[in-house]
Amino acid sequence: MTAAGNICAPKPAPGTVRRILRDAGRQADEDIDIGAAALALASLRRPATPLAPYQRHLDKLTEDVAAYVAGTKDAPSLALRHEALVQVIHRRHGYGGTEESFDDVEAANLMRVIDRRAGLPVALGILYLHVAAKLGWPASGIDFPGRFVLRLETGEGRIIFDAFEGGREVSAPELRHLLKQMVGPDAELAPAHYREAGPRAVLLRLQNNIKARHLDANQIGKAIKILETMVLFAPDNASCWRERGVLLARQGDIAEAVVCLEECLRLGGSEQDRYATSALLQELRPRLDG
């Protein structure tokens, strides 16, 4: 049984879903409703599926976590906040990672994650981030190489934990070991490895997982559609515009490729990317008149 149990519920209109993403693109990072945006992205891939039951499920997760800490006289401690998230999301509702998720493109679709109670680390992490944000608890993703982990903070300190492993706390030695596995034996933890990933960066990471799988399967058209959704909620991301332009050029859509590459140049980016983008535009523009 899926979260969308009522098959008579209204289906979301594509224009409404895209408006949610465009609105996110105009918002400050901290104002983005990460759960709503992730469901909108999922809905674009499953347009016949009602959205409301999944939204209600996110509300239920938040209500259950709030109820778990309701008996405390003062603001819940850091340890209690982490405990509440884990007890409700992982233990009560059954969310956790499976190795099969890494081979499944649907493991990055929040609707399917809710149906299956399993998904990629970043997709599971969005559930925790959504609930924490709704309760006013400072939490963020960490842009760690090779594995998405989460950080929960209060004045007491911080806890870093892994949604894929049921919210298990991850120590610095474990992160160091993981870094060496991903980067090489000489790699050492540095402040950059604890860099915060806000809602927009987390959503980009979610979509990048889907895009990468399409590219691995040489499904260029599908990868372009994913990049189209990415520039809706991250319109100032020069890299997304550039990659979309490059793929459109490969597909022979020169006019749209030029539009994307020009937007990339307008937004800036690294000197190397600007040079490569300019060179590609010089090659493509004459073909518009051909």
Domains counted in the coordinates: how many? 2
The amount of helix comes to 55-70%
Q: Give the N-terminus to C-terminus distance in angstroms.
A: 55 Å
- Strand tally, please? 5
Order of helices and strands: HHHHHHEEEEHEHHHHH
Q: How would you sum up the major sheet?
A: 5 strands, antiparallel
Computed structural class: alpha+beta
| Tally of DSSP helical segments | 12
Average predicted local confidence, pLDDT: 91
What portion of the residues fall into strands of 2 or more residues?
A: 5-15%
Could you describe the 3D structure shown?
The chain is an alpha+beta fold. It contains 12 helices and 5 strands. It folds into 2 domains: 14-199, no CATH class; 236-288, no CATH class. 58% of the residues lie in helices and 7% in strands. It has a 5-stranded antiparallel β-sheet. A hairpin with a 5-residue loop joins strand 3 (157-162) and strand 4. Helix 1 runs antiparallel to helix 2 (34-45). The longest helix has 18 residues, at 199-216. It is globular, with a radius of gyration of 20 Å. The N and C termini lie far apart (55 Å).
